Amino acid sequence: METRPASKAGSWYTGKPKDLEEELDEYLAEVPETVDGSSLPIPGARIIIAPHAGYAYSGKNAAWAYSCLDLSKAKRVFIFGPSHTLGFSGCAVTTFAKYATPFGDFVVDRDIIERLKEAGEMHDMRVRNDVAEHSLEMHLPYLYKRCQQTFKSPEEFPKVVPVIVGSTSRADEKDTGRVLLSYLKDEENAFIISSDFCHWGTRFDYAVYTPDGDIGRLSSLHDHSPKPSGPPIYETIRLVDEAAMNAVKSGSHDAFVDNLRLTGNTVCGRHPIGVAMAALELYAKELTDENKSRFKVVKYDRSSEVIWPDDSSVSYVSAYAVL
């Protein structure tokens, strides 16, 4: 197959172009006209973190990141997402020439893919896992919509550079960050980092709780545990997510890795975020403006507010950085 099909259309989101456009328009219309004192899109905001759940769950949150994203000079968009279908180490690149959406196809920048593959010692993603993976696909309809708003015709749309990130160590992420640095500095490149945040519940093997707000002393609940008599469970979820978001905003890759080691927070895109933060930290050393190359969180949501130990939720975050 030359074109990766939109395999989640019709299940994770509607596959009917008209209905999908109406849904995305509705979500985008709910974002304020200004964010952080800037009109939208935010000039120079070439990198975002956005969630990848079904649009019924995370679509409204993702609209904030996509409203901030500046594509005005983009010739290509790198999309880094975690692997949910295959366990592997390092990064894998797509073998497809195009990625389909219900609106139309994106062309893959095969030249950049080959350069990344060689420089970062990346391997090819298995076709069946590439097709099954949702962490990249869920961003494509939003990206297509924003491209329609930015460019005169699909012929002018940027190409995409899809990369799936497997298991990576702290050192691995720093190495890949160095590979990305030159691309990060080029204003013709934009970046989408795909990640949901805390997956809370026994079905995720992460049901932590703290009665006193100390995330350094988290206990584990079970399905048959009694309802906590202290603060509701969703307050603990908020605390561990806020700690992760603060680490993301710090600009320190080590701070982010250390935070997740402390809390065990199940941020599914922790490795794509880690790669991005490693690259941003290197770039920040070359800049004099402390406001640049630092993520700013603009929206935080949870799929539900957990009260009972046998319940579950997934958290969603939208963030951007000006480069």
Annotation keywords:
323 residues; alpha/beta; Protocatechuate 4,5-dioxygenase, Chain B; 9-stranded mixed β-sheet; 3-stranded mixed β-sheet; 16 strands; 35% helix; 20% strand; MEMO1 family protein; MEMO1_fam
Largest pleated sheet: 9 strands, mixed
Identify low-pLDDT runs. none
Average pLDDT, to the nearest integer? 97
State the CATH architecture: 3-Layer(aba) Sandwich
Could you spell the SSE succession in H and E letters?
EHEEEHEEEEHEHHEHEEEEHHHEE
Task: Classify the beta-strand content into a percent band.
Answer: 15-25%
The CA-CA distance between the termini, in Å, is 36 Å
* DSSP helical segment count: 9
CATH superfamily, called what? LigB-like
CATH topology: Protocatechuate 4,5-dioxygenase, Chain B
CATH class: Alpha Beta
Family: Belongs to the MEMO1 family.
Protein name: MEMO1 family protein
Organism: Trichoderma harzianum CBS 226.95
InterPro entries: MEMO1_fam (IPR002737)
Map the helices and strands.
Elements: E1 3-4, H1 17-29, E2 34-35, E3 38-39, E4 47-50, H2 55-68, E5 76-82, E6 91-93, E7 98-100, E8 105-107, H3 110-119, E9 123-124, H4 127-132, H5 140-150, E10 159-165, H6 170-185, E11 189-194, E12 199-200, E13 208-209, E14 219-220, H7 233-250, H8 253-263, H9 270-284, E15 296-302, E16 313-321
Helix pairs in contact: 6-9, 7-8, 8-9
